[in-house]
């Protein structure tokens, strides 16, 4: 039995021996916001914050998360109020099909938390692990540049 | 004739209204088909052929069935109805029968209590194969008569004195939507089934599912589920029938979600193309004659190959005038993975051919390549040189080219930051090793379905106490149709509170496919007519002259509230919208085959490290013919996203086959453009209203993907001086030819 904190709530689950954190979140804890698109850590759709680090939850063994503190896309908004990354992504056309969006929300929030004034190149580099097949990244770029300190 | 109505409402046509599904999507609350579940649900998995071609000698399901938790293992013998399916020609077995014809073809399906058990059960199904030699060469397939369609266009006898010839190839691209194929089938306990599915065309799926299940249409109800991108991959069936078979067999809900490898193998891909071209012109640049031979590899089953082939042929000359045309186009049947719809649908492949040729012709003429294109640009009233059809509606080829040419080029970069250099943070390339090139290309494509297909879309508009509801079965694949329908509803009626509801196949007729750049025009057209009818009836009932969320007004007086107006029953109108009729071609490939066209032009700036063959696409400028931008932000989103798929085909995306087997079916091995690969994009929208779309709108999804690829490859040629004739351009294509490259 694994005990962990997700979005501030205590959870426990009994994952399989080879089960990923992503699978445990989606299939055992009822948190389907994190998406499964490649299971290889290439696309970032399953991005979560694990003990302060941005990770692909598909690459984390569920059994290794005992005692961990995890933040997923479901914990980003403050009740009905979207966080600023969520708001900007919708406002600037950074969302189309939306399958990559939860991963971008988590990764971009983490970026701005750790680097409040990223350059265009910083944004590109930081989010190069999140693949979007719909937008061509333009709307996502416009959302994030609008959130830079001083802009 | 375009219909324009003064916009009084907020969030109407022409505004960048927010997409209504944006908030649930950023919160992680939007339910994709892979997020669905049901009480007592089983998981399905697929047994796939490990051979491109093999005889099936025996299938033994006993070991799989013996695994605890396994509830069903089904083969072709368990298909109660038609054993074949297919969007245009049913030729693909629901599960392989006697022989497998491509690597990864479904042979059996299983259902088990959980996903892991289902996967283990699929592995435990024993299939004895006798391997057969696969046919993998499309040219040889034509020689053997193994074709889905052979299409010839013959017109005119003109010749020119300046002649260029070329041979070009494009690779097999995958749509690679982020959401893999998935769905949930729930038996109704009375022999029927409800299928919740992410698809581009709910009713085409329904028709095929009904046929193979051997049920009455009303016994099968398809429900639209959240779609994680499509780009053509969801136009054909993948797991729809397998889900229904398993659910009906077990009597329990069954869910399936393809993993990424399956998603590379299960659905269709973009046809790889081989193209021979000959262009003949006068010394002044007037194009006289184009000859083309185009072979598309259709793979093992028909899918939409015949329509893709027609597009490749009709647009084999491009948006140019030409007196004589000889086109021989072939969709070959091989044992490679089946190919079908992908964004651009045949027009992508031939655009790479004709635009490469136009550059080659300009060089032979000693003429500026943009001037050559302008000199031959088609205009309304001209005839498309291939079909001979007179062009109705708008076709601003000249405006698109001139607008693009006038856009400023980006300044040369001096930064030594590796993130701005080919090779990126691999830190392979100093700025001094970089050469820059600029390339230009123009593309054209038909809008909606062609060649006499009975193409329609249904929308039901319903005005009730709370506002206007638009019912549809049209797929919202991410493009923003849901927003555009709301906007049309607002502008057409004056009511701001508009909601889009997805009906099942039992509740509404077909919207047609969300493909062919057609849905804004087709479902948008249906919505406009339906809303106008609802408005007229509301004003009649209320004896007023204006409608809004409060009710019906006469001058400045509110005559009746929406609640009173619709107290007895909602005001409804069901519209089945059709575009101008098209016709099949005659024996020379000629006729009025298309309903309309859109054009776009792209100018690419690339930086290349030629010694290593590394490419960075720096910037793309584009001008696109959109008719009317119903939602400018969504149009820009389609343009930027479509261009990025063109970037992919130009420099990195290709499914690599070895004897019919896909060797790179993963995101590790099949590279998609990331944020780090993304050029900046500047787009100008050319608004020249078309003759039948709502408010003059044209479809906008495909043109960005058509001419972006040849523009990028032209830029790489300009940077390197190499005659690159294949997309994607691979590092070795440059490095091995670059002066100083080691002789092999």
How would you summarize this macromolecular structure in one to three sentences?
The complex is a heterodimer of chains A (151) and B (744). With 151 residues, chain A is an alpha+beta fold.
Word description of this protein:
The complex is a heterodimer of chains A (151) and B (744). Chain A is of the alpha+beta class and 151 residues long. Chain A is 30% helix and 14% strand. Chain A has 5 helices and 5 strands. A 5-stranded mixed beta sheet of chain A has the order 2-1-5-3-4, with helices on both faces. In chain A, a hairpin with a 2-residue loop joins strand 1 (2-6) and strand 2. The relative contact order of chain A is 0.16. With 744 residues, chain B is an alpha+beta fold. Chain B is built from 18 helices and 31 strands. Chain B has a 7-stranded mixed beta sheet, with helices on both faces. A 6-stranded mixed beta sheet of chain B has the order 9-17-16-15-10-31. In chain B, strand 11 and strand 12 (193-197) form a beta hairpin. In chain B, helix 5 (202-213) crosses helix 6 (240-250), helix 8 runs parallel beside helix 9 (347-365) and helix 12 (481-493) packs parallel to helix 13. In chain B, 61% of the residues are buried. The chains are: A alpha+beta (151), B alpha+beta (744). The interface between A and B is large, with 58 and 60 residues.
Distance between the termini of chain B: 63 Å
Order of helices and strands of chain A: EEHEEEHHHH
Return residue spans of chain B where pLDDT drops below 50 for at least 5 consecutive residues: 1-7
- Cα(first) to Cα(last) distance of chain A is 47 Å
SS-based class of chain A: alpha+beta
Largest sheet of chain B: 7 strands, mixed
Number of strands of chain A: 5
Oligomer: heterodimer
- Percent of residues in helices of chain A comes to 25-40%
Quickly give the structural class of chain B: alpha+beta
The share of residues in extended strands of chain A comes to: 5-15%
Overall pLDDT score of chain B: 97
Rg result of chain A: 15 Å
Radius of gyration of chain B: 26 Å
- The biggest beta sheet of chain A, please? 5 strands, mixed
